[in-house]
Amino acid sequence: MNRTKAEQVFRSYTDNYDSSDVKIKLKIDHTFRVAEIADRIAAGLGAERDFAWLSGLLHDIGRFEQVKRYGTFYDAVSIDHAELSADILFKDGLFSEFEKALFSDTGSDENIFLNEDKKKLLETVIRLHNKLAVPDGLDKETLMYTRILRDADKADIFRVLTEPPYDGRNERIINDGEPASDKIMELVKERRCVPRGITKTEFESLVSHCCMAFELEYKVSRNIVAKQGYLDVLMNLDAKNDTVRDQLKTVRDEMKKCWAEAVR
Questions:
Q1: 11, 56, 60, 166: which sits with the fewest CB atoms below 10 Å from its CB?
Q2: Per-residue confidence of the chain (264 residues) as pLDDT tens digits?
Q3: 236 φ, ψ to 5°?
């Protein structure tokens, strides 16, 4: 598969948006990192690396239109970005541009992505990458690639949350953060992801993002996150508020137990 040509199609598409906008630049950088991480996870699992990489390249393509239309990445007040990404690709026809590039100049006549089943698989994986939970009843292949993309996305989100503009939020939490609600902390102790829309403060939002690591599916994904160190940065913010500091310790303790018990 010609990844370079696929990247060129992606950049050609994002050139339609203002890359000087920090939100646009953030998502361009995020996209390439998620694709690379998805490739690494797939390699560790013996899965099809090109397919996993492509899912990472395409998973957030709706984010750019989301920002243009609504000025925010917050799905709850705008639009489900995963659904928008899949619609732009497979209903509006953008994926055809990627198809033309995927196997150009490779000397191969085999293009697995021209197969309708593979395209449907890719669309499903993209639509599911941001959902709170993966639905029951998926076949083995769909489940695996959905989990790969979800893990890769989470792994890079921890990096995103340590860099501008989120580093300003973290500084505010250190200085002025209010404790998370009992409801949020119950979810921490249950080692569950926090449903969209129930966080009320910046600290609760940070805790909810940390909770995504409870549901990393694969050992290779957890190893990648551990080596990156970004999750540790978030869980070890040196807050002035004693309760906030204690709640972060609870997050760390539950994460340590969760990962120790993980078997995949």
A1: 11
A2: 889 999 999 999 999 999 888 889 999 999 999 999 999 999 999 999 999 999 999 999 999 999 999 999 989 899 999 999 999 999 999 999 998 888 766 555 455 556 899 999 999 999 999 998 999 999 999 999 999 999 999 999 999 999 988 899 999 999 999 999 999 999 999 999 999 789 999 999 999 999 999 999 999 999 999 999 999 999 999 999 999 999 999 999 999 999 998 765
A3: -115, 20
* DSSP structure class, residue 133: S
- Given a contact cutoff of 8 angstroms between Cβ atoms, the answer to whether 39 and 53 are in contact is yes
What residue has token string 């021209």? 114
User: Helix crossing, 202-211 with 182-189: angle to 10°?
Assistant: 10
223-253 in b/e form (b: 16+ CB < 10 A) is: ebbeebebbeebbebebebeebbebbeebee
